[in-house]
């Protein structure tokens, strides 16, 4: 599956620090239990990539995902 292909897969995403000083991105869904640990510097790089992708999606006029919600603009 490519990154630009729509999917019906639902998953929960949790992000937080671990007791070992790592940043964990935890993905849980049907048949998936995936803890991903990153050094703080790597986590910051991921955050920057997420922000850049969000900006590009806004510029493309991306609609809200099916069944998703958008935060109201202020």
Task: Characterise this structure.
It is a single chain. The protein is built from 1 helix and 3 strands; from the N terminus they run βββα. It is an alpha+beta fold. 27% of the residues lie in helices and 28% in strands. Strands 1-2-3 form a 3-stranded antiparallel β-sheet.
* Portion in beta strands: 25-35%
- Report mean pLDDT, rounded to a whole number: 86
The dominant shape is: flat
The amount of helix comes to: 25-40%
Number of helices: 1
Distance between the termini: 35 Å
Read across the widest sheet, the strand sequence of neighbours is 1-2-3
Give the biggest sheet: 3 strands, antiparallel
Q: How would you classify the helix and strand content by structural class?
A: alpha+beta
Low-confidence stretches: none
Task: Please provide the ordered H/E string of secondary-structure elements.
Answer: EEEH
Q: Count of DSSP E strands?
A: 3
Oligomer: single chain
Radius of gyration: 15 Å
Q: Summary?
A:
The protein is built from one helix and three strands, in the order βββα.
Spell out the key features of this protein.
single chain; 74 residues; alpha+beta; 3-stranded antiparallel β-sheet
Secondary structure elements and pairings:
Blueprint: E1 11-17, E2 23-29, E3 32-38, H1 40-59
Antiparallel strand pairs: 1-2, 2-3
